[in-house]
Amino acid sequence: MTPRHPSLARAVPSLYSLALTALILGPLLGPGYLLLRDAVSTPRSYGTDSALGLTDAAARAVPQDWLIAVLSSVVDGGVVVKAILFAALWLAGWGAARMVAVLLPGVGLGPQLVASTVMLWNPYVAERLLQGHWSLFTGYAALPWVVCAAVAIRRGRPGAWWALALCLAAAGLTPTGAILAAAVALAVPACPGGHGSVVTRLLVTGALFLTASAPWLTATALSGGGGTSDPAGVAAFAARAEPGLGTIGSLAGLGGIWNSTAVPGSRTSLWALAGTILLLAVVACGLPALWRRRRHPAIAALAVLAGLAVLLPALGATGWGLAVGEWAVVQVPGAGLLRDSQKWVALAVPLYVLAAAAGARAVAARTTRPVASPVAVIAVVFVALPDLVWGVGGALTPVHYPPSWQKASDILSRATPSGDVAVLPAGMFRIFPYSGDVPVLDPAPRMLPVDVLQTGQLVVGEMSAVAGEGARASRVEQLLLSGASPRDLADEHVGWVLVERTTPGPLGDSQRTLDALEKTWGDDELVLYRVPGSSAAPAPVRWPAVAAHLLWVGLLIASIAGCGGTRLRREH
Q1: 522-562: per-residue pLDDT in tens?
Q2: pTM reported for the whole predicted model
Q3: Could you write out the three-class secondary structure of 210-257?
Q4: Helix, strand, or coil (residue 423)
């Protein structure tokens, strides 16, 4: 199955991953914007204090929001988000093939394509896409490339540290992505042997991680957003058992996300059990081959990570595990970042990819038609999750915002700074006529050029609510619902109130407050009110956060240049 021309053989995994990514994201490639649960893309976003992570909310979207704000001043923000998501999935599949070529030399093209398929076509990818965690895939995509870079470092290859720096910087688009990549980047160099000392490798890797994570670490230190979290979130965001599977079975099958509505249709029936059996069978076929290579430091490290990535979230969903988690989010600052425990199962995927490739090679060695074996394995992976195709069954469909949003943004851009924006109805999520039946994160904070107050409160299920870190936003929300006076809002430095008219949600006695405000503009979608007598809140110290973001960008640019320079030296 390997083409005779070497350059073609190297290009096939890249082209195959490109085609597979297009098959997954197909509907999203048309005009419009990604607006699905936690995913919000807008034509333009702005470098507000919120984008820098300088509010009292946790810096979960740093430096993502700042980067989109910068890029969307030049290119449409919807295109930017789609491009990043598409590139991330493409590189994830291609990276899986490269990792197999590095760790299983001579394995051939067929097993590499199996690796790309398992990396992209699995429940983890489907469920995180449906949850709207598009930026998480930069960290996910970095995992196989981190393995390749770490192995190159152990072998003393020129430019290997630049490659690792690039992987960590790309993964650093979100805190979760940075931690995922760092876990692999530290695990592989930590194994004894190889070029250089273990201590040196770990120290340099740690320094690169801190540099790549500078934006969100700095924002957390400046804003206090890394404080304690609502312990109710531990149970609400714990891994969940899918039909026919216990929690550990769901996690072992790379599923089990906390949100039961953010899953493909096939994972809501007993096909979840059948699909998991098929996926694990593909993986199991290659485990004997990996066991024979267990002394390889990278394979050993990935095996340990895979075991922990499945077992720890499963234990975290037990009674005593939930108790430990609740204690941690109250007592340990920043521990709330870990509460969505299923997302860490991504660390098991590199081992699954290797095992699937090794299994495909083993099966091919026992048959008279070796070309057919990888094709059959790929078909099994597709059958295990049939509805990932074409935007997870059409769920990833772009939306089109009404012109009202642009009008409100233009008014706020021209207005004299007079405070932040509060929104009605209360709550973080919306169901607009143009966004479908699934609750979506309010686009106002990213759509408007002024900071929009966000409580961070999340409603899980029909009754359970998890409090957020936005204390000031919560106070303002209660003032509006109780019908407080404009003076009360002005004291909280609220300059504007935006009413989103086409979404359901709590309004309380807010009409009493709105009647006392100055109506600036309105139509059938939105109404914008000015709060008389308000002034802007004292500005936070921005320069350390800006400097941290520029440091991250500098690492990204320098590592790209370093990798490019290494390649040029090799060619000449």
Answers
A1: 999 999 999 999 999 888 999 999 999 999 999 999 999 99
A2: 0.97
A3: HHHCHHHHHHHHHHCCCCCCCCHHHHHCCCCCCCCCCHHHHHHCCCCC
A4: strand
